[in-house]
Amino acid sequence: MSDQIVTRFAPSPTGYLHIGGARTALFNWLYARGRGGKFLLRIEDTDRARSSPEATEAILDGLRWLGLDWDGAPVSQHARAERHAEVAREMLDKGHAYRCYATAEEIAAWREANPNRPFPSPWRDRDDAPDAPFVIRLKAPREGDTTIADAVQGDVTVRNSQLDDMVLLRSDGSPTYMHAVVVDDHDMGVTHIIRGDDHLTNAARQAQIYDAMGWKRPVFAHIPLIHGTDGKKLSKRHGAVGLHEYAAMGYPAAAMRNYLARLGWAHGDDELFDDAQARQWFDLDGIGRAPARLDFKKLEHVSGWHIGRMDDVTLLTEIAAYLEASGAAPLTDAQTQTLRPVLSVLKEKAKTIPALLDQAHFALISRPVEVDEKAAKNLDTVSRGMLTQLTAAVQHANWSRDELEQAAKSVAESHGLGLGKIAAPLRAALAGKTSTPSVFDMMLALGRDEVLARLQDQAG
């Protein structure tokens, strides 16, 4: 038998990929990829009323954007219903399950009279088989305890007397989620189940199915949920909760991987790292037991670090992904050509892709440049006169940074002014804004013809 690590991510296709689900997928991906293992994907689409192909595709798109590749084709849980039923019938034949003919009304009456106590089916040890609808229940042990050796939470023990004989197959022959999950994980060869600790209460019940079938239990690792800044369970009131929202806000995928990895997991004091380091370092013993808190300031810091380290090709790919996610038009070839030379300057300070594009405004617009109200104040008669002088001074310049700076400085000094006094109107003429990169970086990126044309448009 192979010792290969196999993890899985098993979302329900009832909506977008939640940031908590994205982190769970990432932890599974890191654990498998860092050990040469497999990362599998299962779509838990048994809830036919709420599941949809569109939601499935949205989840797959989210994983693709995050950069998490999976092995093989995604498994549909719904498509495996016959296999789930087969295992339930096998348990029935072995005496580990039984037919229960109790009606919904009988069960409801019991629970009303005995709150917080498991339902003791009167059919557990009976052999008669009335001609009536029935469910198949697990014949769970009633004595002793069931203990989960959890890799994050430690040993978690539940008294068997607290657990009822859970339903494996409903009266219509369809499997329950709890049963289907175990069969699927076993058949897929999953060795490590890394999931949110909201599933911790399910683990003891699921372990009983493994034990009844004589299957080896996987390693369970239940990770704390993500909370908002106020310490409460993450919800829409805290801001973005869908992974697609973060893509649309302009956080690069690499930054999201780094940030999500640090939500509940630590490697010493390391906050900023690349994918190779994450795969090498990630281990279950680094996961804490306390809920992680979403922190947008920290996310911005991480995002800025990753943007600053990106090469031009990667950064342009991230820009394209952001524009698509936010519904904006893609860059034209001309815009990309103008943008590329200043990426090294723009990425030094940008925390997000839209912040970078805001600084890149000058490279993305076309003539005539629309000057905003604040920048227009720097275009008085004297300023326009200086722009006219500068146009003549740089017309035949070598178009190097040194020559452009010297020309601008000479024009300013001829008016008894410092270089900053010509930079403001020059900024307005080139970009139409007051907040831009260096005017000389803009001039070099735009090129001689475009700069001269923009200066002539504004010169007096």
Word description of this protein:
The structure is a single chain. The protein is mainly α and 460 residues long. It has 4 domains: 6-76 and 226-297, Rossmann fold (3-Layer(aba) Sandwich), CATH 3.40.50.620; 78-223, 3-Layer(aba) Sandwich (Rossmann fold), CATH 3.40.50; 310-364; 373-458, Orthogonal Bundle (Arc Repressor Mutant, subunit A). It is built from 21 helices and 12 strands. The strands form 5 sheets. It has a 3-stranded parallel sheet, with helices on one face.
Write the layout of secondary structure elements.
Layout: E1 6-9, H1 19-33, E2 38-43, H2 53-66, E3 75-76, H3 81-93, E4 97-100, H4 104-113, E5 135-138, E6 145-150, E7 154-159, E8 167-169, H5 177-187, E9 192-196, H6 200-213, E10 219-223, E11 226-227, H7 243-248, H8 253-261, H9 275-281, E12 292-293, H10 296-309, H11 312-325, H12 333-339, H13 343-346, H14 353-359, H15 361-364, H16 373-376, H17 381-394, H18 401-414, H19 419-431, H20 439-446, H21 448-458
Parallel strand pairs: 1-2, 2-3, 9-10, 11-12
Antiparallel strand pairs: 4-5, 5-8, 6-7
Helix pairs in contact: 3-5, 5-6, 8-10, 17-18, 17-19, 17-21, 18-19
CATH class of the largest domain: Alpha Beta
Characterize the largest beta sheet: strand count, sense, and whether it forms a barrel: 3 strands, parallel
Looking at the structure, the CATH topology of the largest domain is Rossmann fold
CATH superfamily of the largest domain: HUPs
How do the strands of the widest beta sheet line up side by side?
1-2-3
For the record, the count of structural domains works out to: 4
Count of DSSP strands: 12
What value does the average pLDDT take? 93
Percent of residues in beta strands:
5-15%
The parts where pLDDT drops under 50 for at least 5 residues are none
Estimated structural class:
mainly alpha
Task: Please tell me the CATH architecture of the largest domain by its name.
Answer: 3-Layer(aba) Sandwich
- Please give the alpha-carbon distance between the first and last residues: 82 Å
What's the alpha carbon Rg, rounded to whole Å? 31 Å
